[in-house]
Write a structure and sequence with these properties.
Largest sheet: none
Low-confidence stretches: 1-10, 12-33, 38-51
Strand content: under 5%
Mean pLDDT: 78
Shape: globular
Order of helices and strands: HHHHHHHHHHH
Structural class: mainly alpha
Number of strands: 0
Length: about 260
């Protein structure tokens, strides 16, 4: 047999002479080691880190004025969804063609534009000129109260509308309440420190989403009351939205929001 094909026994001396543990790979080291400098690669999550979001939300809920803001963030989308049923209401109860219901959207857009582009900037300028000591928090609260009142009146007019022009007027008034959400956001941020801003807006996004998801089915059930062949809805969903904004207005008048 050629020498190159011989099987040579393993070098046992090499194993015996090597230092202890030299052939133990790092990935074979025990997870629990007596070495104080050893840090295991897999760590269990810290209970404090996993509950940070929970403790932050609890901290936000302890602020009385912020609890009110959370209620507004949740209920406002729920109530505003009633406007989506106005076009069907105009078609069924007033005989409008679906193509002509665009004027309802135009009426609402005009009211919203007047508030956001003209009324709010003008109000802010006037208050800053005549009352330099006025806090932004007080301004946001005043705008919020006024907007809630306008929304309550607008949806009440929408519920009581018996002629077409009242529908246009009601949506125009509802458009004037467009400042509810920005005023509430400004009020909420004035009640907390900057470190909680991220958690605040995350919570606001969740509340608004849940409000929209819940508002659709609720408003649909209320809108179906009184509907039958040849007869449109009684508009109970518009009345319900008016009541919601009225209750929010009462809360806004009694809430304590000073940080």
């Amino acid at each position: 047999m050629p020498e190159s094909s011989k099987l040579e026994p393993p070098d046992n001396d090499h194993h015996h002479n090597s230092p202890a543990g030299a052939h133990v790979a790092e990935d074979q080291r025990p997870l629990l080691s007596s070495d104080p400098n050893f840090i295991p690669s897999i760590r269990s999550p810290s209970p404090h880190k996993s509950s940070t979001w929970y403790t932050e939300i609890l901290h936000l809920l302890r602020i009385p004025g912020l609890r009110f803001c959370f209620i507004v963030f949740f209920t406002t989308p729920l109530a505003l969804i009633a406007k989506a049923f106005v076009y069907q209401h105009a078609s069924e109860s007033f005989g409008w063609e679906m193509s002509t219901t665009t004027w309802l959207r135009v009426s609402q857009a005009v009211g919203a534009s007047l508030v956001t582009l003209l009324a709010l900037p003008l109000l802010n300028t006037l208050l800053l000129l005549h009352k330099r000591g006025l806090q932004a928090q007080q301004l946001d609260l005043a705008v919020l109260r006024g907007s809630l009142l306008i929304a309550a009146v607008g949806f009440a007019v929408l519920w009581q509308a018996r002629v077409s022009w009242m529908l246009l007027l009601a949506l125009f008034v509802c458009g004037l309440s467009e400042a509810i959400q920005p005023a509430t956001q400004g009020l909420a941020t004035s009640l907390i420190t900057r470190e909680y801003n991220a958690r605040l807006f995350t919570t606001v996004a969740v509340l608004e989403t849940v409000g929209k998801l819940a508002g659709g089915p609720i408003q649909s059930v209320l809108f179906s009351i009184g509907r039958r062949e040849g007869h449109g809805s009684l508009g109970i969903n518009f009345l319900a939205s008016s009541v919601v904004f009225g209750l929010l207005l009462v809360l806004a008048l009694v809430v304590r929001v000073k940080r």
